[in-house]
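Sequence in, structure out.
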Amino acid sequence: MNNQNIINPNMPNGQGANGGNYPYYPAAAQRSVQAEPVKQETIMTKCMKRQFSFFGIASAVYALFYTFCLYKNASGITHPFFVIGTLCYFFLSMKKLGVPYKKDSLFYMISIVLLGISNCCTDSQPILWMNKLCIFGLLFILILHTVYQDEGWNVPKYIGAVLQTIGGAIACLFCPLIDMTSFFAAKKQGKSDKKSYGVYVLLGIAISIPVLTVMVMLLCSADVVFRNMVNKIFMFDFSFGDSFRIAFSAVVVFFMSYALLAALCKKSVAEEVTDKKVLEPVIAITVNGLLAVLYVVFSMIQILYLFIGNMQLPEGYTYSSYARQGFFQLLAVCIINLIIVLFCISLFKDNLILKIILTIIGGCTFIMILSSALRMLMYIERYNLTFLRIFVLWALAVIFLLMVGVSVYIYYQRFPLFFYSVAVIIVCYIGLSFAHPDYWIAAYNLNPAHIFNEDSYDAYDSERYLMRLSADAAPIILNEDKNPYLNNAAASIEETSFFPYYQKIRRKSEGMNIRNFNFSIFIAKRWQ
């Protein structure tokens, strides 16, 4: 080891180990002059500013791509390409910043792509809305997982990190302008390593957007054939209102995408997870002990009255009427119980009695889940299927699986509860998304066994609900072999009560083009 430059504080003149003269510093001063480690966010931020030509152009191209894929296009075939393009934009940016790819990100990427594919395979508005919400949430989890070391993160930490990142992106909204100014200033002072035309390309793109928009508007008004071709491709008229909204959407996405990268470069989220188990467990034991007693009594009633059904019911109640109520309330209690158990595990000190009480609450929650599911099934048998009733059954199944993971986590806290929870929710939701619930709703409600059972069927309400279903249900509703109302009709479909649904499907199929092609609507077109 070379000791030439090691300061020897024991020598009065601060001589080095080899007798060289160095100024003497006290120990505290020595610590202050030591080189502080360069923060990673500073390196990444400088890298992003230095390569503004790349990140500016990439964000501009992504903004145009986003607008083309999603503007006035809720369920088109461009959705899978949009999510793939978003992943490419993100990982290409991370590669430029020197952030490595993690192999376990593959699960999130596959899930995001599958949800994008689901968007162009269904016409159900609730499913489309939840698909987009899941894609947004998974993208943020993927982003945080890539940038940070998140092995020990829990659910509250991830929620806080997502909110902090969104807040940081909002705070960095003007970073494109600031970085562009500093980039030009560096070029002017001759600090850039090589000549780059990237910023000029970005300015050219920015100038070309309004110019091309105006020219397309003029050409569309000059020639009707060209106008029809453009409308078929883009699915909107190049009017002033549309042009303004397109430009506004592209500008907003450009600033937000660049700002998100700038916020990630700052790495403002602390990676370490502080131990928050500081509360006295006696508090939780007291509260949860009383809840456990209440839940045990309630669970016994469910077993004796609902599951076994051999106890005397209150006056005026039949067994079926007793069973067909309370499922929404029980669903709410199950969700609250899940939150309570997670809250106690995260904030209260480890205690064996508390763990036993939480286990009892978890066991009672399983009974409540089964009770709510049984009540819902009996309610469906009486009043038929709706999307909300299917979603309740799905939610109960997900809560059951989550509660299994939480029960394991109570006693084995190295269990990856967050990843398990995300995997359960995403895998179960992808199954729901591709299942086409509207198809099964129509199949169940139009089953002759339910239609002609007057004690359990309201024909008017059921038909009115079926009219609101998406194109996913067309292979049942517009199929004479599956719909008894069409099979028994002597006249054409125009004279049946399902003609409004037929018209809705025809309007949707006629409005399809290159951007908004949807497989569900395409299949429904066969049954017109």
